Amino acid sequence: MTEADSHLRATADAYDAVAALYSELFRDALDDQPLDRASLAVFAELVRNAGGGRVAELGCGPGHVTAHLQNLGLDVFGTDLSPVMIDLARKAYPGLRFDVGSMDALDLADGELAGIVSWYSVIHTPPQELPRYFSEFRRVLAPGGHLLLAFFESEGDPVTVFDHKVTPAYRWPVGDLAALARRAGFTEVGRVLREPHETERFRHGRLLMRTQ
User: Where is the Methyltransferase domain (predicted)?
Assistant: First the structure.
C-alpha cells in the first residue's frame, strides 16, 4: 500500500466511525448559511446556463449538499470514500445516486461532467497530493465545465495543518489553492471568503473555477 493509499484508507475509516453523528450534525447545515447557499446557487446557474449536464459532488458525505444541488435543478450524483456515509446518503435520499469512490481516480470518462462540487472534501488531502486531484477534476470535466471548492482559509498563514474533529486537515491560502487549480487547467471565475460564526474556528473560502 502506498502512502497515498494509506492516507485514503485512514480518512475513510475515520469518517465511517463518526458517520451517524456527522449526518445528524450537518443535515441542516445550509439552513443558516446564506453565503454558502448563494455560492451553490451561482454554481448551479452557471452549469445550467452552459447547457447543463451531469454534476458530481465529490466527497458528498451523508448527501445533504447533493440533495440541495438537485433542488437547484442539477442532474447530480454523489461520491465518497466512506461506505458508511454512502449508506446513510442512500437511505436519506433514495431518489439520488451515491457511489463509493475516490476523488483522485474517478470511474468516469474524459469530459463526462458539466460540473464538480468539492464541499470541504479536499481539506484532508496532503498538499503534495492535491495537484493530482485537480488533474483528475480537469480530466472528467467537459470544456467550459465548472468546479466549486469549499475549504478552510489560512488567514494570512501558509498551508497549515489543524486538528479537524474527524481527521487532520489543512487550511489553505485562497491564492495558493487558486494557483494549483490554474496549473491544472482551470480559470478562476470568482472567490468568496466568509468569517467564522461563533461556533466556528476558521475563515471559510469558496473558489469557483472553469475549465479552459
Answer: 55-145
